[in-house]
Amino acid sequence: MPVVLDQEFVPDTHGVLAEWRAKSPAIAMQDGRIIVLRAEDVIRLTTDPRTMQIPGVAYANHHRIPEGRARKFLEDMLLFSNGEAHVLRRGPFARAFAFSAIKARRPAIRAVARQVMAEMPRGEEFNFVDRVAARVPSEMIAGLLGLPVSDAPYFSSLVYKLARTLSTNYPMEMHDEIETAANELYAYLGGQLAERQTAPRDDMLTGLLETVDELGEEDTLTQLMAVVLAGTDTTRAAFAIMVMLLLQDGQAWTDVRDDRGLIPGALSEALRCEPSVGALPRLTAAALELGDFTVPPGRILVLSSVSAMRDPALYAEPNRFDIRRTDHPKLHLVFGGGVHRCLGEMLARIEMEEALDALLDAAPDLQLVEAPQILGLGGIRGVTPMTVLAP
Q1: Is the bond leading into 11 cis (omega within 30 degrees of zero)?
Q2: Residue 98: pLDDT above 90?
Q3: Engineering a disulfide at 185: which of 129, 158, 261, 263 sits with its beta carbon 3.0 to 4.6 angstroms away?
Q4: Is the CA virtual torsion 346, 350, 356, 360 positive or negative?
């Protein structure tokens, strides 16, 4: 299997992936991970019984993450769990994030989005990622869980650091900062949960008290950290990317501004073109074939959604940003597949739909001054500052 160096993907990630995808179903990285490139294989392997979700211990060992709260977070979080442990950890949150429950919150999400847009800077250049894209998901997850909305800037700043544990390559030089953030977030959420034990409220955190009895406090807080991270960082990046793509296209921004019925399609297309989550990690539980290659058990697979969603075998003209595209699969690949499919898919979609609708009303002539860079091949991809001007 061909070995490709990380630096070969800079600066044209999509071009390099397309070149290799045409020649090989998979490539190997220097650290032994295997990146699966073609849509057919990526979709198949999300549920293939010869693969499993990579256990947190294996993930942490691969990245050589030292003992501590950040490592414990990875070892015990529901994303890296399998079997009965995954069912137990996911269950309480699956009920809270059910379609009907989230759909009922659309008016509350709309109110948050419109408040954020009303407070957007005017007549001056500003960083859209921090001033707008970050606020909607963090304030919405606060409302959903029952956290003080005024705390959103604090806990979201911790989440952005903790999210680096899910980067393509763990930044060991930042480990102390990540570890501090993990401990702070754990303590903050633990304090909020303790308040509910003495003074229950009508919120999701109070509902999790039963889960504490079942899973234990540490495990429950770990899952809560994971939910706050997933509900904050990925949507922040995805919304900024969607606005960037629409503004870069120009006509797409005008079209969606004039016809709000195009918003869901614009969102799906933005998630396809530049996903904020670049890959799905799996571990081979048995030998399997990828084209002419045989992958032995115990190998880490990186199922590349970045590559698969630009595969011409899945999408017509895959490099064209088309908000009217009709060939999206029923289940959008960016949200994963199988039993580990993203819990917060409906919440993320509604948040970004309402945020875009509010933005189009508040700043119909928004201008893109400097586009952000989208960083990374897998895990949660980074997004650099995005400078805009709202006249």
Answers
A1: yes
A2: no
A3: 158
A4: positive
User: Looking up tokens 């919304």, which residue turns up?
Assistant: 239
SS3 category, 247: helix
What H or E segment, with its residue span, contains residue 300? strand 300-304
CA distances from 327 to 181, 268, 314, 324 (A): 41, 11, 8, 9
- Strands 300-304 vs 34-36: parallel, antiparallel or unpaired: parallel
Across the chain, mean pLDDT equals 94
Going by pLDDT thresholds of 50, 70 and 90, the confidence category of residue 6 is confident
Query: What's the rounded Cα separation, in Å, for the pair 236 and 130?
Result: 9
> Residue 157 belongs to what H/E stretch?
helix 152-162
Counts for the chain of helices (H) and strands (E), in that order = 18, 12
Q: What is the pLDDT of residue 377?
A: 85
Cβ contacts of residue 383 below 8 Å, gap of 6+? 129, 236, 237, 240, 241, 276, 372, 373, 374, 375
| b/e sequence 229-249, b meaning 16+ C-beta within 10 Å | bbbbbbbbbbbbbbbbbbbeb
Given this model, what pLDDT does residue 223 score?
Answer: 93
Residue 145 near residue 168 (C-beta atoms within 8 A): no
Other CB atoms within 10 Å distance of the CB of residue 174: 13
Please state the length of the chain: 391
Q: Is 201 helix (H, G, I), strand (E, B) or coil?
A: coil
Of 99-108, 266-275, 375-384, which has the strongest mean pLDDT? 266-275
Q: What is the pLDDT of residues 295-307, one digit of tens each?
A: 999 999 999 999 9
- Stretch (H or E) spanning 380: none
- Residue % of the chain over a pLDDT of 90: 82
**207-241 pLDDT per residue, tens:** 888 888 888 999 999 999 999 998 898 899 999 99
Residues 6+ apart with CB under 8 A from 7: none
Task: Say if pTM beats, i.e. exceeds, 0.85.
Answer: yes
DSSP state of 315: S
HSE-CB of 300 using CA atoms within 13 angstroms? 23
Cross-strand bridge partners of residue 283: 52, 300
